[in-house]
Amino acid sequence: MQSKTGRRRLKFVAVLGALALIAAACGDDTGGSLLEELQESGTITVGIANEIPYGYEDEATGNITGEAPEVAKVVLAELGIDNMEAQVVEFGSLIGGLNAGNFDMIAAGMYINADRAEEVIFSDPDYCINESMLVVEGNPHGLTNYNSVADTDAVLAVAAGTVNVAYAVDAGIPEDQIVEFAGIEDQYDAIRAGRVDAVSGTVLTVTEHANAMDGFEALPSFPALDENGDPILGCGGFGFADQEFRDAFNEVLNRLQEDGTVQAIVEEHLGSRDVAEDAVDLTVADLTGG
Fold this sequence. Notes:
The chain is of the alpha/beta class.
């Protein structure tokens, strides 16, 4: 007959054996890095906000296009990732969706700044651009920039999660003159319905909508100002949750900026080579203070 001590010893050995098997199994499941997984599958999912001309699904073809996806496609092809799929979310949900693992990177022309850099790993910028506002034709409130709104009773639309929210606050616009909308297009629906007097955004997005909307116009471009009244350089890039992936992407992005490939793509989609050239010598650290 086996003693209690003997039985305990056998149970202990059995438990150790089971733990060893579990540890070995877990080790087998770790696999490679995110970059290696993407290279192996050849497919990446990007987050976009359906904002023309930065990142959107073409209604006619269903293809993912725009400045950011098209630049990303060229960079990713150099990394061995040739197929792009997209998940469309509201702009304010892009960072949360990335960090939740719903997609592998953000390709939406997102502005790089210090606050966002606390939540997402940015690439270096690939374009820099100024702001504008959509107003009723004739500009009845005489608006010229964000600060001018504070001197009137005009109501300004801003999209949740965008830098325009902070721009409006820093300009001293009273809270009751700022209306926040979940999506980019919601703002333009609101001004059509007469619920707001102006819509904020980059000059390209605003101009795109002004050209498609009767009875409205885009203000001449202007820089946003910080709380000290200094101009803010608005530069966009790509967002990541994985450092190794970002570093590999950045290396190729920089090389394709050096030979002009990126600038040509940006010019095709944003209509200006200058906005791409302005970003060439800038790094993410220049824009975040990191």
